[in-house]
Amino acid sequence: MTTDKKKILIPLDGTDRSMHSLDYVKQLFRKDEVTITLLNVLEIVIINDMMLSDTVVTNSENESKAILEGAKAQLQDYTVEAISTFGYASDEILRKAREDKFDAIIMTKSSKKGLARMIGSVTRKVLQDTRTLLIIVPE
């Protein structure tokens, strides 16, 4: 009898806080139960229609690659795909979850304060708009 592996999406922003999702998924699932997709969204803000230099884009891509490689190393016994993309984090997480029909999204609670909290966190936006099971890991 064959069972399908659960598809898990783990968005990472490179903070230590976001990396807690990796430990949590290892507590919840054995390596033969899941396939994991790590997603890092590069959010670039363009102000007054200023174009970004190739250096800024390359540095952002290199930073994203380092984040994803570090996370993959922590999940070395699991089946892992790592994806880096440009856009708004919540939109890209929601799009990826919807298009690839993930069974669950595992992400950490925001620890932002002040203005960032007033605007709303990525986690809150995903929670409001997803139809995918969302597991929010405490800090």
UniProtKB/TrEMBL annotation:
InterPro entries: Rossmann-like_a/b/a_fold, Universal_stress_UspA, UspA. SUPFAM superfamilies: Adenine nucleotide alpha hydrolases-like. Residues 6-137 form the UspA domain. It comes from the Bacteria. Pfam families: Usp (PF00582). PANTHER family: STRESS RESPONSE PROTEIN NHAX, UNIVERSAL STRESS PROTEIN UP12. Belongs to the universal stress protein A family. This is Universal stress protein UspA-like protein. It comes from Clostridium pasteurianum BC1. The lineage of its organism: Bacteria, Bacillati, Bacillota, Clostridia, Eubacteriales.
